[in-house]
Every structure is written in structure tokens, then in C-alpha cells.
Amino acid sequence: MGATKKKVKRTGHTSGVVLGLSAVLVAVEDNAPKAFIVRGAEHALSVGVDPVKEDGDALPFGPFDPSEHTTLEQGLRSWVKTQTPLTPGYVEQLYTFGNRGRYAGQDGPARVVSVGYLALTSPDDVSADEKIFWGDWYAYFPWEDWRDGRPRVIDDVIALGLKRWVSAATTKADKAYRRARADVCFGLHDSPWDAEKVLERYELLYEARLVFEAIRDRDLKVDYVLVPGRSMLYDHRRILATAMGRLRGKLKYRPVVFELLPEEFTLLQLQKTVEAIMGHLIHKQNFRRLVESAGMVEEVAGKKSLAAGGRPAALFRFRRDVVLERPAPGVKVSAAGK
Predict the structure, then answer these.
(1) Does residue 270 share a domain with residue 170?
(2) Are 121 and 223 members of one domain?
């Protein structure tokens, strides 16, 4: 890390812009979708933030060094290797984050622009500690997990906070706009829930000053209850929300779910993995018919699962030829009961 610090300072960033690389590493473990979290890594050497003081949850991140990194993705993989024990397989560029004030508290003049990446991997046997660990998505976004029904936090905290935010609007038009936004994002007043609007929901809570980051970034003190959920350094929870929404949408038209599964799996494992990512239950028989009729999997002849208890289940594997056979071989699912 020390060598990296010297290189960053030597470049000087005369343009006034620091280009960073952020990684959302996703795995599913025990039916829980998780992102890899690092604490205390040297995330902000180039913008004047003392890394010793970085004691919050963050995504793997590091500056792009054009003298060392051939491509942005190569730079991303280099930082992931430096800060984590993981070697991701599937990687795709997610979004570019460049809002002013992304790094609250920075005392340097540079604007920090981060290119975010989504990477899918398996949890493997990572020795977790207080510095590196797999963080459950739903610890950061408890309102996104509907597998046990509508999360209580929506009605107990979020709806009340948004009602106060709507009432604070100064014009009738703005009040109507805020109310419509709240309804669409959080499925209030009989509006449907859209699982892909993860980022829109987080940004609404941030704008309404209902999440910790909004209070921290503005150095405010409030006398109302904030929405529960683990916070993250800088705007990393926003980056994670972007990745969650992207992956939920992508499941429907690309077979990316198989990047999160072992080579051989049961149909129940496949279903539970999809449910974990989407945040809602799906109809078992309809799902199995869809997957099998779409030719996405093939049974492994003569092999059964060794799960303890119950009858052994057939093992399947992903048919990679399906990518060539169909233009959009995703898992088109709807919530159970719909």
C-alpha cells in the first residue's frame, strides 16, 4: 500500500480529477446475497483523507494509475487482489460516479470520479475478521428483502419519514411530486413494488434525509428516527444500491445467476439463489417449468445431491450453449402469488 501512496502523490492529478475504481463483489451464501466489505483500506490517499480514520464499511476501491494499469478493468482487478483474498470471474462495468461532495470531509481540491464495477463470484472460505468480510445486502437495505413478506420497516419508519418529507414541501405541485415519488418507489398507497428500483429508493431516502449518510454529509443534527440499515463510507451504499438494481434486472435477460452457483446444483439451490437476489419468493413449480423448458440446465446423469435429511435431489448444470441459442436467456420470474 505504501508504494501506491507515493505513486498517487507523484502523479499530482493536475487535472483536478482523481479517477478511482470501485468493486461490488457479490456472492450468495446460505441463501443470503452478500457484498465483500473492507474496512481501513487506503481508499482515499489521493484526496486528503487520512486512511487511519476510515473505520466504516466500504467497498474495495483504489485509484486508477495509468502508468501501472493497462485498462480500467485491469486496474480494478489489481485493487481487488490487493484488498481482498478474492479473484472474481464475471466482471462488468456498472456506472461512473462523479457527484460533487462524494467524499465528504475531503480537504483536497480534486473531484473524485469512480468507475464502479459489478463482479460475481463464490463465497469460498474467506477468513473474515473486523477488516474484511462478506456483508449481507439486507443489513444495508433492510427494506429490500420481501421473502418473509412486506418489511415492517417500510410502514413503521419509512412511510412516516416520507410523509413528513412530503408535508415539508413548500408548494402544492412539489408536494404532489414528492408524494408520487414516495408511492412509486416504496409501493405505498397500493402502488406496485418494483424490485429493480433499489437505487431510486436509496436516493429518495437520502434526499429526504432519512439515512445516516445524508446527515453525515451535511453535518446535521436531527430529532427524528433515521431508517435502520448499516451505513457505508463516502457514497459506497449508493454504489451498492446501483449494483443490486443492475443485477436484479440482469437476471431477467442474461444467465448471470449461474455465476453465483457451483458447477453442479439442485433446482432448489437455483431457486433460492434467484429469490435471494430478487428479494422475494417465487412459485416453485412455475419456476422449474420455466427453467427446464427454456433449456437453461441439463441434469447430471447418475448423480444426486448429498444434502442431509430428506430425499437426495437431482443435480443439474448450466447449459452454456443456451447463450448461442437464445437472444435473452434470462430467468424471467415474478413474485409468488402474482
Answers:
(1) no
(2) no
How much is the pLDDT for 198? 98
Q: Give the chain's mean pLDDT.
A: 84
82 and 37 in one domain? yes
What is the pLDDT at residue 327? 52
**Burial track 46-84 (b if 16+ CB lie within 10 A, e otherwise):** bbebeeeebebbbbbbbbbbeeebeeebebbbbbbeebb
Domain match, 131 and 154 both: no
In angstroms, rounded to a whole number, what is the distance separating the alpha carbons of residues 108 and 258?
43
Identify whether 240 is part of a domain.
Answer: no
> Rounded to an integer, what is the distance from CA 97 to the centroid of its chain?
14
**What is the C-alpha separation between 151 and 40, in angstroms, rounded?**
32
In a domain, 332, yes or no: no
* pTM as predicted: 0.87
Residue 24's SS3 state is strand
Locate all alpha helices (DSSP H) within the chain, ordered by sequence: 2-11, 72-83, 137-140, 152-153, 159-167, 172-186, 198-207, 212-218, 236-250, 267-278, 284-293, 322-325
Structure-model confidence comparison of residues 155 and 325, the more confident one: 155
What is the tens place of the pLDDT at every residue in 30-71? 999 999 999 875 554 444 444 434 568 999 988 888 888 999
Shared-domain flag, residues 9 and 90: yes
Residue 62 is predicted with a pLDDT of 86
Q: What is the 3-state secondary structure (H, E, C) of 297-317?
A: EEEEEEEECCCCCCCCCEEEE
